[in-house]
Amino acid sequence: MAGLDAALAGAVAFIAGNILIDTVRVTLPTSGEPVLNEDTGQLEYPAAGQVLYEGPGAVLSTNALGELPGVPDAQQPWAGATRSRYRLYTPLAAPIPPKDAIVTVVGVHDPGRTSLMGRSWICNDPGRVSTVEVVRITSLDQNRVPEAGP
């Protein structure tokens, strides 16, 4: 498939130079129980887990924002929460993120676009792989941001 790889090299270079222009970090989820901060009343989680990848990437939203699960789980005693679907794009040389890994954007190409900073996403499944690839794609769901108190 060397001929196909050579034919796709232009697409890989275009994606690397025009889409994978921010800096993303992929970490394993933290281990350990949260601790109550008595000053703020908020639960604080242990520091981030092991860094699996930090480098060029992009987090892009998909068309399914605000999607609700159609069938509630039998073990779920509450209405389903909305889901915020995103995709992580990383170079093919980056490791395949495992399920439940945490993704954050740690650097943006345009200083005016800081809305991604401070958010985090969880990997729904391991990164996708296929026989023909130009970029690694991993499905994400945005972690909910705590709402401000009264």
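^ that was protein a. below is b, sequence first then the tokens
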Amino acid sequence: MQNLSSPIPQSFKITNQYVWLPHIYALPARISYDVTCENERDEFIPCFSFTKAQWGSPECDALSWYASPHRDDFTFRTNLFGKFPTVKRLSPSWRPTVGEKFRMSCEITTTSATYSINGIDYATATYNEGDVPNRGYFGFAKYGDVNITVENVYVDSRHVFTQVQWDNYKSHFHSDEKIQAVTFEELLENTDGGKVDWENPPIAGGRGLEVQTLAVVNECELQIGYVIFDAICLAVGAVGLRAGVNRVTAEAIAKAARPVLPRIQVIIARIAAEGATYTEMAKGVFDILRVIWSGGMLGAVLGAFTNSLTWYYALLYGATALGTIVAAFATDGLAFVAEVSIELATFGFLVADSVNALKQCS
């Protein structure tokens, strides 16, 4: 068994032993990566497990899924290889080509899972609560020896929320006595143990976090605020939130990022350029967030981003988003760009908002 170190390597091999990623994650979670099978008999078997038990052990608890150049009859299994959940194929049977890279993604909840190949859903499984661990490690099993390359791993989830994450978020709000007074235990008690669901966040009737502002923004700054909102949505997997964003939130984000808006405007021009590819746009998203981070404003911007949530959840979601984004900066960003590129195929707001921002800023 090989336990990879943190941060996750950009590229690694699966050969003659199980390989596990370093962090523990709580469901729901989504993972994606680029894969190349080098031999016809290779079997690619990604999985999610708490025990990390190998086949033959009574402690096998993994959900696994499958791709191989020589067979296409397997999809999802539970207890690693031992049981077959209810599976529905969403696309025709498929086999990877030897030596040809493909991108696989898998989204897992406590009762269902779906995996996709090159952005197209391939199979979905349903199972009972408890059949799959609700927290665990992503990894790669093997049945026989293989020669498989995995690259650009990207996990869209929260780690089990930690004291370190909370302390890091609080460090961005030194002058806010209300935030400083919230303990880690108090936060967990008021957020169902630190659960995050970006698809259905707890929206407040009033305001969430109080965001420090400078002055009323102009139309150029406002439209850049919308683009920054788009970038955060793409980074944390919250693309469904974009349709409901209002002017107040975009304005608050623009105010929080005001000192670096001229630099972001330059990046927006690249995103909105005619003929820009999804990869180039995704690199622009990464650069926008990195500019905000390097300017020391990411905490304040995320406070504005979560301002519509109820108080404790605004803190939790802000801290979770901060951890997700900062983790991407610890790498060269290739995995982040690959994941966002796929999201952009169905997320038209970024281009529309970028074009509108350039129009208002010209």
